[in-house]
Design a protein that fits this description.
Shape: elongated
Oligomer: single chain
Number of strands: 0
Structural class: mainly alpha
Number of helices: 3
Length: 99
């Protein structure tokens, strides 16, 4: 049964989908920062966000809150991971310039 109405589950699914698509398009914008395993996480994230959009209406408030916490922690950890990858690329560039 699919009940498609705009609610917090749609909002969460769109936020997660947008964040995951940013991870995918990072491959084209900054290819030195992107990794091959990002495609695996993009696939899982898009699957997870589509499940939230289609079946999220069945979540009661405490489960919805747990999904908010999970998505916030995943997006925060992903942001930090990408920043650290960028710093690592900058450090290796500086080392190569000094050699």
């Amino acid at each position: 049964m699919i009940n498609f109405s705009f609610g917090p589950n749609i909002f969460l699914g769109l936020i997660l989908g947008f964040g995951i698509l940013l991870l995918y398009f990072l491959r084209f914008v900054k290819p030195e920062v992107a990794r091959d395993e990002d495609l695996f996480f993009v696939t899982l994230g898009l699957l997870y966000s589509s499940i939230l959009v289609v079946h999220g209406w069945r979540l009661d408030p405490i489960l919805l809150f747990s999904q908010v916490l999970i998505i916030a922690s995943v997006l925060g950890a992903g942001w930090e991971n990408i920043r650290l990858r960028g710093l690592l690329v900058n450090i290796t560039k500086k080392k190569k310039e000094n050699d």
